[in-house]
């Protein structure tokens, strides 16, 4: 990285003085009288210290001498020492700051500013507001200055600016800690609500019954990795989940496709929804009137669904973060899908890093973004060729992840798609593998490892629920599912699978009907 580029990414944070000097030396927002009233209240009343000390930061005080006085109070509090005029004066003397702040007289006059500490919390709120105003001006001025710099990367500046404003909010409006009583009450209430409701998962449902049962749905603030070798159906499975969330559960979902165009993805969705092969959809004279009517009928739900597709092929992590924040604000998206991780870039700052370092940076950013927005993020990932070289069932393992170290560490859930039929394995311990796909959960930070069995229609690149499950019980099926104990058949109401009573190619599947 050249010197100019290095300097650009190592620019220091602009100070208040620099910011206001660029704004015609206007007087920064401040209330010195309130600053002194807060300090006086802290010197007068130990309860005022206990109730407010964790909500005040030294930089909330505009005047430097007031910052030094508060810093001495903070040190005494951490030491467990009494806080009054005498102790603060002695602490400032030991720190060599007493003369700087105005001497013993200045400390003594602070208590005369207030007669009681009854309103100290209100004063602290005023103090906080003035500090936030100064911070907003500083960040805006810093952004303005960088925007005039022709060497500035605009996308990174946009992401940096959004982060700066979010930091102001997060650093000054953090929620308080929770006591065990309130946490226990909320947890029990959530358990009771689940027991008495139609929803049987605590997270966002995928529409695939056994997978939802095994992982409990996708939880807020989690990073999920979906990995497979080429041709296993990563994109198709992810699109199926996104489609179910948006169409069946009416959840706004964002899908970022770095590999396929939006029109290609839509063609896949139409093929899956209507069970008309993709190549027929692309030929002008191949469709019958019945098929054209089927397309109109079956895709009506898609057109009305809150599914948002972005097919920008050169997406960087900074662009993704900016877009996700805007979509969260505009559409209140509940989940993000990314196809796929290895096609993303770390931006200008990571251009000279090796690929593994860049992927590590991206995965950490994705994990942070999921927590920031409070939604699950699913990123697809490639697997190494070691799967192909392995004998036996060729089931993927965690070490097969490309640039696996950071991905495995940052992910809350790692899922693999495994289709034995692709490797000419005709049966396994569960029966025939024809038209069968397994979703193997190889890492689950908040639950057990599991294997979910789905149907796969290769002609339509479509995953669907099947009546064979690996240990599913009727008591834990969703409310829209019914279980026939005599025949071991599960029926689930889902518009995506409504045409699966009579598969068009029954020879592709083993053992009976699919979910309705």
Annotation keywords:
elongated; 516 residues; disordered C terminus; alpha/beta; two-stranded antiparallel ribbon; disordered N terminus; 9-stranded mixed β-sheet; 21 helices
Rounded to the nearest angstrom, the radius of gyration is 30 Å
Structural class: alpha/beta
- Mean pLDDT figure: 77
Strand content is: 5-15%
Question: How many individual helices?
Answer: 21
**Head-to-tail CA distance between termini:** 58 Å
Physical arrangement of strands within the biggest beta sheet: 3-2-4-5-1-6-9-10-11
Q: Could you estimate the helical fraction of the residues in percent?
A: 40-55%
Which ranges are low-confidence, i.e. pLDDT below 50, for 5 or more consecutive residues? 1-10, 468-516
Kindly state the number of beta strands.
13
Largest sheet: 9 strands, mixed
Shape: elongated
């Amino acid at each position: 990285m050249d010197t100019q580029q290095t300097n650009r990414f190592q620019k220091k944070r602009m100070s208040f003085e620099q910011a206001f000097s660029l704004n015609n030396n206007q007087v920064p927002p401040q209330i010195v009288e309130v600053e002194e009233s807060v300090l006086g209240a802290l010197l007068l009343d130990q309860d005022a210290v206990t109730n407010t000390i964790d909500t005040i930061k030294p930089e909330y005080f505009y005047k430097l001498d007031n910052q030094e006085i508060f810093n001495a109070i903070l040190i005494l509090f951490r030491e467990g020492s009494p806080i009054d005029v005498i102790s603060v004066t002695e602490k400032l003397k030991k720190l060599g700051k007493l003369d700087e702040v105005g001497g013993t007289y200045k400390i003594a006059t602070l208590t005369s500013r207030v007669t009681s500490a009854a309103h100290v919390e209100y004063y602290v709120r005023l103090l906080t507001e003035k500090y936030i105003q100064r911070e907003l001006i500083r960040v805006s001025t810093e952004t303005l200055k960088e925007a005039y710099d022709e060497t500035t990367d605009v996308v990174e500046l946009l992401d940096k600016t959004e982060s700066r404003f979010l930091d102001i909010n997060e650093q000054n409006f953090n929620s308080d800690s929770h006591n065990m009583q309130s946490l226990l009450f909320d947890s029990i209430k959530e358990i009771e609500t689940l027991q008495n409701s139609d929803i049987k998962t605590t997270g966002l449902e995928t529409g695939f019954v056994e997978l939802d049962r095994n992982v409990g749905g996708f939880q807020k603030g989690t990073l999920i990795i979906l990995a497979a070798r080429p041709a296993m159906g990563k994109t198709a499975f992810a699109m199926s989940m996104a489609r179910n969330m948006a169409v069946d559960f009416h959840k706004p979902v964002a899908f970022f496709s770095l590999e396929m165009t939006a029109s290609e993805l839509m063609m896949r969705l139409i093929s899956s929804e209507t069970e008309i092969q993709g190549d027929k959809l692309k030929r002008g004279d191949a469709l019958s009137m019945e098929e054209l009517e089927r397309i109109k009928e079956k895709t009506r739900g898609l057109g009305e669904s809150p599914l948002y597709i972005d097919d920008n092929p050169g997406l960087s992590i900074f662009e993704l973060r900016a877009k996700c924040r805007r979509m969260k604000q505009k559409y209140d998206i509940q989940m993000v899908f990314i196809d796929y991780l290895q096609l993303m870039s770390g931006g200008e700052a990571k251009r000279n890093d090796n690929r593994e370092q860049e992927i590590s940076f991206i995965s950490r950013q994705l994990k942070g973004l999921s927590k920031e927005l409070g939604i699950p993020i699913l990123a697809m990932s490639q697997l190494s060729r070691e799967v192909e070289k392995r004998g036996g069932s060729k089931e993927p393992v965690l070490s097969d992840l490309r640039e696996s170290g950071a991905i495995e560490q940052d992910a809350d859930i790692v899922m693999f798609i495994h289709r034995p039929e692709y490797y000419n394995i005709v049966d396994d311990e569960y029966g025939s593998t024809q038209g069968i796909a397994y979703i193997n959960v190889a890492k689950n930070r908040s639950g057990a490892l599991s294997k979910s069995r789905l149907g796969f229609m290769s002609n339509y690149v479509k995953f669907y629920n099947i009546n064979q499950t690996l240990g599913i019980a009727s008591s834990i099926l969703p409310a829209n599912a019914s279980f026939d104990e005599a025949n071991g058949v599960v029926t689930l109401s889902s518009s995506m699978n409504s045409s699966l009573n009579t598969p068009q190619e029954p020879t592709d599947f083993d053992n009976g009907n699919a979910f309705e």
